[in-house]
Amino acid sequence: MSIEAFRAEVAGWMAANLTGRFAPLFDRGHAGDGDALPELRKDWERKLAEGGWTCIGWPREHGGRGLPVAEQVVFQEEYARAGGPGRLGHIGEGLLGPTLIAFGDDDQKRRFLPAIREGREFWAQGYSEPDAGSDLASIRTRARRDPESGDWLVTGQKVWTSLAHLSDWIFVLARGEEGSIGPKGLIFLMMRLDQPGVEIRPIRQIGGGSEFNATFFDGARVKAGDIVGVPGDGWRIAMALLGFERGLSTLGQQMGFARELDLIIEIATENGAAARPAIRARIARAWAGLRAMRHMAMRMLADHPEPQVQLESLGYKYQWSNWHRDLGRLGMDVLGFSGAAASADPRVEKLRRLFFFTRADTVYGGTNEIQLNIIAERGLGMPREPRGPSGKGA
Amino acid sequence: MDLQLSPDQIFMRDEARRLLAERSGSEQLRRAIGAGGFDAALWSTIGGELAWCAVAVPEEAGGLGLGAPELALLAEECGRRLAPVPFWSSACLAAPLVAALGAGEAGAALLGRIAAGEAAACAWPGIGGADPLCGTIPVARRAGGGWTVSATIAAVLDASSAAFFLVPASADGGLGLFAVERPAAAVEPLEGIDLMRPAARLVLDGAAASRIDSAGFSARDFDDALMTARLAEAAEQVGAAQGALDLTLAYVAERVQFGRTIASFQAVKHRCAALLVEISEARSLVHGAARSLDPLEVAAAGVLATQALFRAAEEAIQLHGGVGNTWEYDPHLYLRRAQATAAVFGSTDEKLAIIADALLGDAA
Question: What's the pLDDT score for residue A291?
Answer without folding.
Answer: 97
